[in-house]
Amino acid sequence: MAIDPLTIVMVVILAALIFFMFRNSRKRQKEQAETRSKMVPGAEVMTNFGLYGTLLSVNEDDNTALVETSPGHVIKVHRQVLARVVEPTVAEPAEADADAELTTGATELNEDHAIRLDAPEYGERIDETSKKPGAKSDD
């Protein structure tokens, strides 16, 4: 009795799918365990629905957590809605240099093209070359 090559291919594909399912499941469990280990009182957390706050306590008996969203405002949520621990971000020096260049460029542009804000028409230029034809002069 000969085995059909199509059957062999289907069994190999099925085995690969099962392998990847178990691998992803283990990976997800590992990530969840790592996140739970970071969920300690005092940590900045974000919930599944996008609420940020400071974790005050976790009660594993009734699966609840107390989160302080702002000073004096404490909410009680289910422990499973705590999505992740928010890590503080540090601005990179390269980004600060780019911001400084943009600010410097804007200052130079404003000096070259000064605009009178107290003019009758907003946006009237200071220099004499931009006067409208037929406009009265102040002389």
Structure description:
With 139 residues, this protein is of the alpha+beta class. Among the domains are: 1-37; 39-87, SH3 type barrels (Roll), CATH 2.30.30. 39% of the residues lie in helices and 21% in strands. The chain is built from two helices and five strands. It has a five-stranded antiparallel sheet with strand order 4-3-2-1-5, with no helix packed on it. Strand 3 (64-70) and strand 4 form a beta hairpin. The longest helix is centred in the N-terminal third of the chain and has 34 residues, at 5-38. It is elongated, with a radius of gyration of 32 Å. It starts with a helix and ends in a 27-residue tail after the last helix. The model is unreliable at 106-110 (pLDDT under 50). Residues 92-139 are annotated as: Disordered. This is Preprotein translocase subunit YajC. InterPro entries: Preprotein_translocase_YajC.
In short:
This protein is of the alpha+beta class. The protein is built from 2 helices and 5 strands.
